[in-house]
Fold:
Amino acid sequence: MSKPSNTVVTIAENESVEEEKNLKLILDRAKDQSKLCPVRDVIHRISDKWSLLSILALGTHGTLRFNALKKEIGDVSQRMLTVTLRNLEEDGFVSRKIYAEVPPRVEYQLTDMGQGLMQQALQLADWANTQLPAIISSRKKFKKG
Amino acid sequence: MSKPSNTVVTIAENESVEEEKNLKLILDRAKDQSKLCPVRDVIHRISDKWSLLSILALGTHGTLRFNALKKEIGDVSQRMLTVTLRNLEEDGFVSRKIYAEVPPRVEYQLTDMGQGLMQQALQLADWANTQLPAIISSRKKFKKG
DNA sequence: CAGTATCCCTACCGATACTG
DNA sequence: CAGTATCGGTAGGGATACTG
Structure:
């Protein structure tokens, strides 16, 4: 398990100055909750119960119709899948194509930006996987103490 | 604006097979909502209203006492800051040191894992910043259409 | 098939008051 | 100073019924 050094901001020495400036910018932006903040926005979008799952499902299958996606995810309700997909579509992460047929056919797939989002999520997932044992042990310790 | 290619999973050609395997593992893990899933867990932790802000504040200042952190964040209530910090402490992202003094002094700082989490958040923030214009324009289009 | 509409319930969050 | 305790509001989410 690679351990970051114990300086406050820990990156390669020569990048730390710029990174620290960047950090303050992001912090300031996040602090003003009246203005819109990209990080909070993106996190908020993927943090609801079904968005991440929808993105991963579309990422693995490429294109899915509404009911196929619903079946793939499992226990999502019709209502919540609709809401989730509309939100993802609104922000440009998912595209929705309607075919004028009877019965209707609607196909969903990730946009390029949606695939980028999925990559970000997968990076986070990799990190989270490596940290999992530490998190679990920390929780146990917390309960006892 | 760098555009990912239009294959389903887009990374360097030679990494794509392993990455795709990885993706399915993560998807399967995320689908079973009864078991604990590292990604969902971590996202859930940073997606509440004050966690990310607390992490960034501690990241820029190193160590902060309760009221200093409260002042730094701005409009967080005492209750919510306490709840937030306890959650972060429970998962091992923040350490809490109590000094047996009168009046009491309590110091918070990021653990190594907490700094790692901040780095992950900053990466996501960088990406989110570059995507912001596209997201905004997508929202506008959505409203009109 | 792919959605709306409605109702209800729970989790998160804020304000206020109190305390070791 | 650094917290708890209590209450009440709001947004997310589920079940069910209905529809172009």
About this structure: The domain at 38-130 of chain A is CATH 1.10.10.10 (Arc Repressor Mutant, subunit A). Residues 48-50, 77, 79-80, 83, 102, 104 of chain A lie near DNA strand D (CB under 10 Å from a C1'). Chain A touches chain B through 65 residues (CB under 8 Å). The helical segments of chain A are 16-31, 38-47, 51-61, 66-73, 78-90, 112-144.
